[in-house]
Amino acid sequence: MPLPAHAAPPHLPQDWRAVGRELLLQPPELVAPALLGKLLARQAAAGWLAGRVVEVEAYLGPHITATPDPAAHSFRGITDRNRVMFGPAGHAYVYFIYGMHFCANVTCEPEGLAGCILLRALEPVLGTDAMAANRGLTPAANPAAIASGPGKLCRALGIDRASHNGLDLVAGDGELRLLEDAFQPGEIAVGRRIGIRHAADLPLRFWLSGNPCVSRA
DNA sequence: CTGTGGATTTGCT
DNA sequence: GCAAATCCACAGG
């Protein structure tokens, strides 16, 4: 029997492939711009939700002494919260902030090094109506309002720490995945990271130039 | 358009 | 105790 017209797509497009883990073994300032244009997807009860990554920030591990990054959660070493950052590349580091919001990161560099990439904004691609509903918006909402910020992104995809922290994003069989298709990013812009006090001058925020789904247009 | 306060976890001082 | 990798509602000009 036919699916109702409003049902979320049950499958991922066939040409979407898991991002290779070797890409993520590099330092975060190289991985971050390389993640622009990739896809973050989550399998929800009603089907897959996905968005294209349009804005990211790099956070440097404490082994980098030439340009210390006290804004990184890993700066003072391992804790219960940041443990996954020190683990293998390609896993999700999800944390709770300001008593209200979750933020999602991709770990990078070999095990023992704590580089990671904060995913700051997505352009909705799959299950857009369901993503809007997760944010309390109607299907008619501006797509640029759905996941244009790190907290919004997690809410739109239904990502939380209890369910998703530590999951492998590139094993190819998870509920939460980092994927790629044939999309070729255009111009990439670089600037200062948002919302931090220390090391605010480091050019570690990257976004797709002119994309309306970036958190500050 | 700008500014402010509230939601309430985590980890350092 | 307090500030933080945030967002939204609402007040005021």
Structural class: alpha+beta
Beta-strand proportion: 25-35%
- Distance, first to last CA: 44 Å
**Total beta-strand segments:** 9
Short characterization:
By secondary structure, the chain is of the alpha+beta class.
Features:
217 residues, alpha+beta, 9-stranded antiparallel sheet, 9 strands, 27% strand, globular
Structure, described:
There is one protein chain. With 217 residues, the protein is of the alpha+beta class. 12% of the residues lie in helices and 27% in strands. The chain has 4 helices and 9 strands; from the N terminus they run E-H-E-E-E-E-E-H-H-H-E-E-E. The chain has helices at 28-35, 128-134, 150-157, 161-164, and strands at 17-18, 39-44, 47-59, 92-97, 101-107, 116-126, 176-180, 188-191, 205-208. Strands 1, 2, 3, 4, 5, 6, 7, 8 and 9 form a 9-stranded antiparallel sheet that branches. A hairpin with an 8-residue loop joins strand 5 and strand 6 (116-126). The structure holds a DNA duplex (13 and 13 nucleotides).
SSE order and pairing:
Layout: E1 17-18, H1 28-35, E2 39-44, E3 47-59, E4 92-97, E5 101-107, E6 116-126, H2 128-134, H3 150-157, H4 161-164, E7 176-180, E8 188-191, E9 205-208
Antiparallel strand pairs: 1-7, 2-3, 2-7, 3-6, 3-9, 4-5, 5-6, 8-9
The protein binds a DNA duplex (13 and 13 nucleotides) through strand 4, strand 5 and helix 3.
